[in-house]
Amino acid sequence: MTTPGPAGSAPRAKRVDARRNEQTLLEVAAAVFVTDGVDAPVRLIAERAGVGMGTIYRHFPTRPALVAAVYQHQVEALAQAGPSLLRESGDPEVALQRWAVGFVDFLVTKHGLAGALGSDKEGVNTLHQYFVDRLVPVCDALLDAALEPEATGRVSGYMLMRGIGNLCIGGGNDPHYDAARLAALLVTGVLAGARHGRGSDTIAPEDDSNPPRGT
Q1: How confident is the model over 13-65, as pLDDT tens digits?
Q2: Any idea what the Cα angle at residue 95 is, between residues 171 and 99, rounded to 5°?
Q3: Contact criterion met (CB below 8 Å) for 191 and 146
């Protein structure tokens, strides 16, 4: 005879399973958006996730809902990746470089966000501000970890993210253009410049009123 569990345990278990399934769908959708763009058929996402179309539409009734959820999922993954990479790599510069690779992949999805959300300009702006507020401190922390306290030529996380964003503009449409490689070179240059004190008195002050271009 099976002993019944605590009252309410079955519904809680179902909620946990539903949340886990949703996260799996978001991870698969994000991978599809990186390789095939945000206009990729929902059928392709369903096939790669091993589920039916109805399962996706139960979680995300419309494409804009799916794209916005993937966007938020990627932002949170990048935010959590910063501290995790620092712990796991043992080398802050390696951690920053790996984080930059993930940031480039994220930008592929973000570039199609406005088109996917259509006329919802307020929604686009809200998601963009959420991205800036959530990820700039993470990038700053990675830069701080990779540089000595006396480094005088460093740039901010905002400026580095904006630079990477500019490198990614249009890159997804050209097979001969490797945005990730250029981003890695940019990170290397930023760290080298900070360590040698270059750029601190030649870079114009940042205007934080404008969001990072290309991001």
Answers
A1: 546 677 788 889 999 998 898 888 888 899 999 999 999 999 999 999 988 88
A2: 30
A3: yes
Do the Cβ atoms of 81 and 87 come closer than 8 Å?
Answer: no
| Contact indicator for 43, 88 with CB cutoff of 8 Å | no
Instruction: Give the C-alpha distances (Å, rounded to integers) separating 126 from 103, 167, 211.
Output: 19, 23, 12
Banded model confidence at residue 12, pLDDT cuts 50, 70, 90 = low
Which sign, positive or negative, has the C-alpha torsion 166, 172, 178, 183? positive
Would you say how long the chain is, in residues? 215
Question: CA-based angle 72:73:74, to the nearest 5?
Answer: 90
Closest CA to 114 of 126, 122, 124, 104: 124
